[in-house]
Structure formats: C-alpha cells, structure tokens
Automatic annotation (TrEMBL):
Sequence intervals crossing the membrane: 87-111, 117-136, 148-181, 201-222, 295-320, 332-349
Originating species: Paenibacillus oceani
Cellular localisation: Cell membrane
Sample GO molecular function, one term: chromate transmembrane transporter activity
Membrane topology, from the record: Multi-pass membrane protein
Keywords noted in UniProt: Cell membrane, Membrane, Transmembrane, Transmembrane helix
Gene Ontology cellular-component annotations: plasma membrane
InterPro entries hit by this protein: Chr_Tranpt_l_chain, Chromate_transpt
Membership in a protein family: Belongs to the chromate ion transporter (CHR) (TC 2.A.51) family.
Annotated protein name in UniProt: Chromate transporter
Keyword Disulfide bond: no
Length: 398
C-alpha cells in the first residue's frame, strides 16, 4: 500500500512536470498571456482546479510580490502534487526560457531579433490569448453591474497610473469595495482544496523568506564575495517587485548595469531576446547572470530571483482555505477577482495591443487567431506556431 502511494505521488509530480514543460515551451506573451494559457490547460482542459479556486489563486498571487504567473503555476503544482509538485511546475515552466536566454547571452548577442516578423506574430498571438482569458474569466468573475464596474475602474486606474503603486492601490480599493458590497453574499459551498503542505512547513517558508531578505544585505556588507552580492541583488529584485513582468526591469538595470556586471548595450539586447522566448519574463535574470558569469551565473541569478516566489506561495497556501471560507474575506476576494479581470483588460491594451496591433492586417490576424482558439478549440501550441508563421507572412507582404 505504501509503495502504491509513493508511485502515485511520483506519477503526479511527473505529470505536473510534463504539463508545465509543455506550457514553458509554448507560453509566449508575458504574464497576462500566461494566465490565459494556465486557465486553458489547468482549468478548462485538465480540471485540476475549478474556476473559482483558480481566480482566488490568481488574486492571491497578485497581492504577493514576485512573478505572478510563475506563482500561480507553483501554486497549482503544489495543490496537485505537494512540495515536489510546486518545484516541478516551476522547473517545467521556467527552464526552457532559462536555457534559451543563457544561450542568447553566450552565443547570439550580436543578433538583433526585435524586428523579426515571427516575433511580431507571437505578440499578436498574445493579444488573442489574453482576450480569450478575459472573455472566460469575465463571465465567471464579473456577473453583475457592480463587479463589472470594479473591473472597468481597475482597468482605467491601471492604464492612467501604469506602475506597481497603481496596481496595489487598485487591488486595495477593490478589496474594500468587495467587503462593503459582497460580504453578505458569501457562498456556503466554496470548493475546498486539499493543500498537501503543513502549516509548520508554511511558517518555515515565510520565516526563511523574511530572514533572507534581512540577512543577505548584512552578509554582503561583511563578506566580500561576488556571488553573494549577485544572490542578494537578484533575491531582493524577486522579493520587492509587485506586478512582475516588465516591472522588474528597472530593478534589474539598477542592480546589474550600475554595478558594472552588465553593459547597458548588453542589457538592452537581452531585453529584446527575452521577448522572443516563452515562459516568465523574470528569466531575463538568467540572461544577465549568463553575461556576468556564464552558466553558473545564469543558475545563481535564476535561483535567487525565483526563490522568493516559491517561499511566499508555499508559505501562504496552507492558510488559503481559511481565508476563502470567511464571509468577509469572500467579499474581499469577490472585489479583488473583479479587479483582476480589469488588470488583464488593461494589459490587453498596454503593452500587448499597443505593441502588436499596428495595422488593419494585424487586427485581422488577431481576430483569426482568437477564432481558432475560442471557437474552433485549436490547441494553443498550434495557435502559437500559426501566429508566428503569419507574422512572417505579414512582414513579407506588407
């Protein structure tokens, strides 16, 4: 019996690794698009998590600093297969872009990929992916006038105040509105997820997160070690950035260019390369680490910048069900979930729409890709390949 349980656990985390690796190889378009890919694969196709639980997990990760889409993936992997499942989900989703960007750093720095047609095609794919995610999540999370209003207001504020502070303000105001308007509409049958992580383990993770955040700068001042300084810089970048994605860029530029580890020209070249690979934008740190110290530098930078995300998700998940079943906090989550739809709507416009849709042909191709995804139910990876080929065609014809 014990051996059977061990085989089941092993098969479970291997399954998580397999699915997340597929997502890591095909999820182009940044954090907002990643949430759309996750929703399609984990919720709609495999039903590893129900719609409400997925939305609540997204809302939780929006509140946490770090790469939100990676944290959602870690959370789903942890719920599915425990601590090892969370690690497997992170490895599968992250490693393809880590390897690709490290290779870019060491072999392809002289190539300018920013203007390639297939890159433009992938941006158009991201527009279709995010639009599909908004349509699906909007039906569930904004079913009435009040929540639609929260979503639209969140979108407006996010677009007018395009920084991490604006996003935090949006989520806090949405939480207050949710508590005022929806706390008396608490659901009695909120789906309860079995999170296979003990509260003791969760507390250890939270203590470790805050302990490293406080101790690393002190150790860096006492011990003259380049790799300790690298670990500290990337760990703080992963710990203090809300909103993830592009928000981390100024932090990384300050930590690496100002320190002389990476030239400004190499920094900008790497940012262009990052747009060409799937997976989380935080793997830009892998490129910077490789510029500074080869494969070892890439490994140290990657581990350091993603470690806070894993510690925070693992530290909060065991308390999740208590939060979700409280009537007052259910109201808060209702407001925050509506705001998340608004944040995705804002992301659909900026940076996705503004960088991808520059002509009527771009819009027409985005409409075709959306139809393939939403109505013909074409697998996302085929949509990605089709979008890239279409971008190459548009570059030739126009």
């Amino acid at each position: 019996m014990a051996g059977s349980r061990k085989r089941g656990a092993r098969n479970s985390w291997l399954e998580v690794l397999k699915v997340s690796l597929k997502l890591g190889l095909t999820s182009f378009g940044g954090p907002a698009a990643h949430l759309g890919y996750f929703h399609g694969e984990y919720v709609r196709k495999r039903q590893w998590m129900d719609e409400r639980s997925y939305a609540d997990l997204v809302a939780l990760c929006q509140f946490l600093p770090g790469p939100a889409s990676s944290q959602v993936g870690i959370g789903i992997g942890t719920v599915r297969a425990g601590l090892v499942g969370g690690i497997a989900a992170w490895i599968g989703f992250t490693m393809p872009s880590v390897v690709a960007l490290a290779l870019f750093a060491m072999l392809l720095q002289s190539f300018d990929l920013a203007g390639e047609g297939w890159i433009h095609g992938l941006k158009i794919v991201a527009v279709a992916i995010v639009a599909h995610a908004i349509a699906g999540m909007g039906q569930k999370l904004t079913p009435d006038r009040s929540r639609i209003s929260i979503a639209v207001a969140a979108s407006v504020v996010t677009l007018l105040v395009p920084n991490a502070a604006g996003q935090i303000i949006v989520l806090l105001l949405a939480a207050v509105c949710g508590w005022i308007w929806f706390r008396r509409q608490a659901e009695a049958d909120v789906p309860v997820l079995d999170v296979p992580v003990s509260r003791r383990t969760a507390i250890v993770c939270l203590v470790l997160f805050f302990g490293l955040l406080a101790a690393l700068p002190l150790l860096r001042g006492w011990i003259s070690s380049h790799w300790l300084a690298v670990f500290d810089s990337y760990y703080r970048s992963g710990s203090l950035v809300f909103g993830g994605g592009h928000v981390v860029l100024p932090f990384l530029e300050k930590e690496t260019v100002a320190a002389g580890w990476v030239s400004k020209e190499a920094f900008l070249a790497g940012y262009g390369a990052t747009q060409a690979v799937p997976g989380p934008l935080f793997t830009f740190a892998s490129y910077l680490g490789a510029i500074d110290g080869g494969w070892i530098g890439a490994a140290v930078a990657t581990f350091a910048i993603f470690l806070p995300a894993y510690l925070l998700v693992t530290g909060t998940l065991p308390f999740w069900n208590v939060i979700r079943t409280s009537p007052a906090l259910q109201g808060v989550l209702a407001g925050v979930n509506a705001a998340v739809v608004g944040l995705l709507l804002a992301a659909l416009y900026d940076p996705l729409w503004t960088s991808a849709i520059g002509s009527t042909a771009d819009f027409a191709w985005a409409a075709v890709l959306y139809t393939m995804l939403a109505y013909w139910k074409v697998p996302p990876w085929i949509v990605v390949v089709t979008g890239a080929l279409g971008g190459m065609g548009l570059a030739v014809l126009l």
